[in-house]
Specification:
By secondary structure, the chain is mostly helical. Helices cover 52% and strands 0% of the residues. It is flat and about 40 Å long.
């Protein structure tokens, strides 16, 4: 994925529109899980109101991502690794 990207694709302020990491918590979690399925292991996020939004992200979106990955793990029987 990154090999096909230009510098502008990789380093650009785009408010989540290019990655489509905007929407409901469920939509964002599914998109993050989709990127993980494609081999992406790092997503740089930006938050306008950092304290409130990072807390929301951690409490509402990350648990959904973990649920999706756990469900996929149960059906595929492959390990799911937690990121520190």
């Amino acid at each position: 994925m990154a090999a096909d990207s230009t510098f502008e694709d990789l380093v650009q302020y785009n408010d989540g529109f290019r990655t489509q990491l905007i929407g409901t918590p469920e939509q964002i979690a599914e998109r993050i899980a989709g990127y993980r399925r494609r081999g992406v292991d790092l997503i740089l996020g930006g938050f306008l109101h950092f304290r409130e939004e990072i807390e929301y992200f951690g409490s509402r979106i990350l648990p959904l991502v973990r649920e999706i990955e756990a469900a996929e793990h149960d059906t595929v029987d492959e390990p799911v690794y937690a990121q520190a």
